[in-house]
């Protein structure tokens, strides 16, 4: 199994419930994310980033095209992908009536781990995220940063090969966000995960990802840049180019995505 994510001629059109007016959320996306890559997706609000994630985690079906991993589609083969794709959302989505430990073991129950292992694995991840003193605490007793750390523990404990983060750090203060983002990428890299991060913050994307995908609105690939290939001195120029691409909704030839063959 390669775990590469193949996105092929992906298109998603919603129909507004009341009026029936079609909304093109994804115009056309073609790209491949290789196993172990750390990719950031940037683009204007409403450009279809969350829609893309929802298809990737199997919650939505494409209107046309496909996302394939090992020849299967997450929306067609939901059970096969259970536990293989983890997501960290903007809201921590912890269950308020369960302790932190029980929030983390929940995901492990779902993948059928024996209770003793559920517990030891959950404890290990909560420990790694600096929450060992709070195993029995309830989410309402914790700060936003601590809750988001618990959400990271929950996502990583399942040991998915692919991790997605949708604006997962944007609501925290800058210092906390930087710290937790750092932990996220440290864990992604040390565990050899494939990661796709959606962010409004271009700095964050360029600082942390190996590769940047710039989505136009509606989603199509305007730029596909290997960040690490840019010498550090040229990174400010890269940032300006990407900003222009986002603003104008037009590709820049220097960093344009290649047309699919
Ligand atoms: N379930 C839905 N029904 C109808 N339209 C939808 C639905 N989900 C998303 N859309 C529309 O699809 C477009 C893309 O939305 P999406 O949430 O994917 O954007 P986004 O890039 O995640 O934006 P943001 O950066 O604000 O989170 C928007 O125009 C939105 O209104
Ligand atoms: Mg979104």
């Amino acid at each position: 199994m390669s775990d590469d994510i193949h996105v092929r001629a992906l298109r998603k059109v919603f129909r507004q419930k009341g009026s029936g007016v079609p909304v093109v959320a994804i115009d056309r996306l073609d790209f491949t994310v290789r196993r172990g890559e750390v990719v950031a997706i940037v683009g204007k609000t409403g450009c279809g980033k969350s829609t893309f994630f929802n298809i990737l985690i199997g919650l939505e079906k494409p209107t046309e095209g496909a996302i394939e991993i090992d020849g299967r589609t997450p929306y067609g083969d939901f059970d096969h992908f259970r536990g293989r794709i983890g997501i960290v959302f903007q809201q921590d989505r912890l269950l308020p009536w369960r302790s932190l430990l029980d929030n983390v073991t929940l995901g492990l129950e779902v993948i059928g781990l024996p209770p003793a292992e559920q517990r030891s694995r959950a404890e290990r991840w909560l420990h790694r995220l600096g929450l060992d003193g709070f195993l029995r605490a309830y989410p309402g007793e914790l700060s936003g940063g601590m809750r988001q750390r618990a959400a990271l523990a929950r996502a990583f404990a399942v040991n998915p090969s692919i991790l997605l983060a949708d604006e997962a750090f944007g609501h925290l203060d800058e210092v906390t966000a930087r710290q937790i983002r750092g932990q996220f990428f440290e864990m992604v890299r040390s565990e050899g995960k494939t990661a796709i991060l959606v962010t409004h913050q271009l700095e964050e994307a360029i600082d942390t990802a190996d590769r940047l995908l710039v989505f136009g609105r509606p989603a199509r690939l305007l730029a596909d840049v290997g960040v690490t290939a840019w010498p550090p001195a040229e990174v400010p120029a890269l940032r300006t180019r990407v900003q222009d691409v986002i603003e104008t909704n037009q590709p820049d030839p220097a960093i344009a995505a290649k047309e699919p063959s």
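Strands lie at 5-15, 22-33, 38-42, 64-69, 85-88, 162-166, 194-198, 211-215, 219-226. The pocket of adenosine-5'-triphosphate (ligand 1) is lined by residues 14, 16, 23, 25, 45-51 (CB under 6 Å).
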